[in-house]
Write a structure and sequence with these properties.
The structure holds two protein chains of two kinds.
Chain A: H1 12-20, E1 26-27, H2 28-38, H3 47-59, E2 63-69, E3 77-83, H4 85-113
Antiparallel strand pairs in A: 1-3, 2-3
Chain B: H1 3-15, H2 21-44, H3 47-111, H4 116-130, H5 135-160, H6 166-198
Helix pairs in contact in B: 1-2, 2-3, 3-4, 3-6, 4-5, 5-6
The chains are: A alpha+beta, B mainly alpha.
Amino acid sequence: METSQEHLPVSEATFLILLSLAQESRHGYAIMKDVEALSQGRVSLSTGTLYGALSRLLDQRWIERVEDELPEQSSRTRKRYRLSEQGRHVLQAESQRLEQLAAMARLRLAENLS
Amino acid sequence: MTDVMRFLTAVYARLLRLYPPGFRAEFAEEMLAVFSAALEDARAAGAWPAVRCFLRELAALPASINQASRIERQHNTRSYRIHRLRFAARYNSLWFGGLLLMLGLSRFLRSGEMTPIRAFQLLLSLSLLLAWRWERTGGLIAMLGGALLCGLGMWGAYVSSQGETLPVQLLITLVGLLWGAPFLIFGGLFVRARTLAEA
């Protein structure tokens, strides 16, 4: 049985994409914009990088694809992505890992100052 | 949309052809729509952001094509594994299941007697052949039956080999075990192939 810990650490782009989908499902462009906003403009994904990452995350089953019918163009669908249960576990595990690291760093820095 | 924007979008659409076919079929339409939206938004902020948006795509292209190719290769490797597994399961079950089915039927036709164990064996041989069509169900029936035959075979061999020396007993028990093992193995191959195909 695979555990979330086995997949850690995840890359920053992956973490931000998962984080972007944590609240709600989004389509590709919304993810791109949200990742940029979450990283305060530091991470700007290209379309190719974004879809490469989405493809990998779909393969790993960390995210799922849902299709929205477009009412005005009934033959076309717009794809949205949402976090799967497994993806949520990975995101939680990675957040905890980062928190522990940050706490450790703060502790060491405080020890150094005193 | 201005002519320049239309041109840049057309160039991007051409560049998408550099991606591997499977990836392109799955994502190209979406990627083009996202690129158009990003370009449109960037243009609202001015000409330079629009150019920067296009250049960013260009700069990331080699790495993302490489990543997409790697993903495609992994998909192909998986399809190849499923293909090989399925081939092994079908080829072996055809010989083994078919042979047992013919043997069982010919014995039944000759003697006119259908013992429960023979009927069971015939059913299992049939399930191996049915697994060609219903991989999981056929495979699971063959596996469960195989496990039961292994147990029965070992027990029967153990009982009948009482009084023999230990190595002989072990050998006979092993033969008994082998009685159901092929059903267990080939049934397992079918179930594995189905599980991989669904993954």
